[in-house]
Amino acid sequence: MNRKDWLLFLGVGLFIGVFPLVVLQFKAVSHYVDVMIFAGIFSLVCLGLSMLMGFAGQISMAQAAFFGIGAYASGILTSRFGLNPWAAMPVGVALSASVAWLIGIPTLRLKGHYLAMATLGFGVIVHIILGEEVEWTGGPSGLVDIPGLSLFGRPVTNDVHWYYLVWGIVFLALVFCLHVIHSRVGRALRAIHEEETAAEAMGVPTARFKLQVFVLSAVFAAVAGSLYTHYVTCLNPGSFNLMWSIRFLLMVMVGGMRSLWGAIMGTVLLTFVGNEWLQVFADFEVLIYGAILLVVAMFFPGGLVSLVPRWPGPRKDPIPAASDGGS
Amino acid sequence: MLKVKSVHTYYGNIHALKGVSLHVRPGETVALIGANGAGKSTIVNTICGQIKPLKGRIEFQGQPIEGLAPEEIVRRGIALVPEGRQIFATLTVESNLEMGGFVHRNNHRQVREDMTRMYDRFPILRQRSRQLAGTLSGGEQQMLAISRALMSRPQLLVLDEPSMGLAPLIVREIFSIIEELRREGRTILLIEQNARAALQIADRGYVLETGKVVLQGEGNTLLEHREVQRAYLGKGAGQIVDA
């Protein structure tokens, strides 16, 4: 991690740390803690997606499906088979990772946006299965009676505890991702994004690296799905459709494709926009999202994170603030 | 060192290489010249594993390498300076060099040493080491692309159109770099449209036309050849153009 990362780490960490303490003082916004829990869960999905889009240059339209696989695996195993949530989570993660691996093997050998197409289809399939397999998933009416989480033998019921649990996991994931992108592998990923043929000519096993990042993104999504399940304790296929996959893409793009910090900022902003401020628009929500994307693409293609002021001194970060945006 | 034996390569339905054979001996600089669409880049891509040949064999140091993945071929000792340079524009110059040493992942010290060597060879790259590679001039980018390829410590260096898109003065500079590499005893396969410059520094040359080798011989002999002069050097066609 470089200096900029440390400063952001400090700043964002402080903000996240004191956020519930501040908003709980005000009755009108005290439910923001709940919104931020969702934002944290979605951040986990978007961190994985940001690795995939911003660093490996691949687009996935199925993050909501992987999120759903993690969620339903946890939901079904705990509610129908009485498994402990912490034991169910790895099952969902493994399932999600192996599915991603199977989709990735053929599509990531190809250059170009074949992954986007394959995942588009896959996302729709998963959504249909969740809706139709009534015996397992409860179908459109949903899955209920899912237990909450326990930590060290004590059930996590308090929103503030949930908040710190979720954001703690987000920060662990973030530290892991930052290490990856500043490593040799991260450099290779950016090289793939830049000039795939040249990266191959340097001896980078491009197909394998892209596959690994894709599987990583599916793992993150599944962990997030499992957390989501045990937080809301009921599931409904509507949360895992194509629209949600697109929302995750938007969160990453609004925040800034080439920055993990951007992914988190974009997620927090759009979660508030979606859960709080746009409820009044109901069906017109999609239009507003379109408008947001347009404004971002036109005026700050580097995303929200490009608005963070740069620190003086020689810039070591080789990632330009303004990227060529969505391709 | 490198033997290409009657290789046929297709792009979809297009029969791009129709039984090309050529070889490169250790320490030799071999030029491959030909017009646009003759199949020069297809040969490069076939040797480096980007496309698989349909028929034929490619041997490198006695081992068959056709059908191997590109990264494996790099590991065997063939490095490519790709057409149009293809440097990693949003990475720093230094990161580009580090990428070049990618196959030596476990030998950090060697990569560092090689990097110093590259900086000594091209001091301008040292000056610009923290700059994004995309901000370099065309000639500097080509130097970077050559250095990046050398970072893998190749047995064979393949240069695909190193003069492409560069100003004449810079082209001369790039060719003097290649000349220098040749004098150091490196084995080089040079693919060029600039037939004169390529044949002048090459020990031997091949002329490629519509997917076939139509002429081969020593560099100087080819330069003197009537067909080569007519078709590639613009001589004997009524008017003599000397670049």
Q: Reading side by side through the largest sheet of chain A, how are the strands ordered?
A: 1-2
The biggest beta sheet of chain B is recorded as:
6 strands, mixed
Catalogue the unreliable spans of chain B. Answer: 237-241
Assembly state of the chains shown: heterodimer
The total beta strand count of chain B reads: 10
Helix content of chain A: 55-70%
Distance between the termini of chain A: 27 Å
Domains of chain A (count): 1
* Approximate strand percentage of chain B: 25-35%
Structural class of chain A: mainly alpha
Number of helix segments of chain A?
13
Determine Rg of chain B (CA atoms, Å).
Answer: 18 Å
Task: Report helical residue fraction of chain B.
Answer: 25-40%
Number of strands of chain A: 2
**Class based on secondary structure composition and strand pairing of chain B:** alpha/beta
- Shape descriptor of chain A reads globular
Please, what is the average pLDDT of chain A?
A: 87
What is the H/E string of chain A? HHHHHHEEHHHHHHH
Gyration radius of chain A (Cα, Å) is 19 Å
